[in-house]
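Board notes (copied after class):
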Amino acid sequence: MADNKSINLVDLRPGVRVRMADGAVAEIVENPQDGFWLIVRYLSHPGDPSPADAGEQQVFATDVESIEP
């Protein structure tokens, strides 16, 4: 698994799926391309059976663990 130090967040486009440090999987909705923040929609979360209800969330770069295939 790649860590966030090897992922160039600026290059990630909407639609890309990422695995978060807490095990959640999210899809990028918007990338402000500042290298620090992504706006995502959670697709699955180990502690929440209905992550889609959370809507769009801002996540910080250090929360992104890897890019999902």
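Comment from the instructor: The two ends are 11 Å apart (CA to CA). The mean pLDDT is 87.
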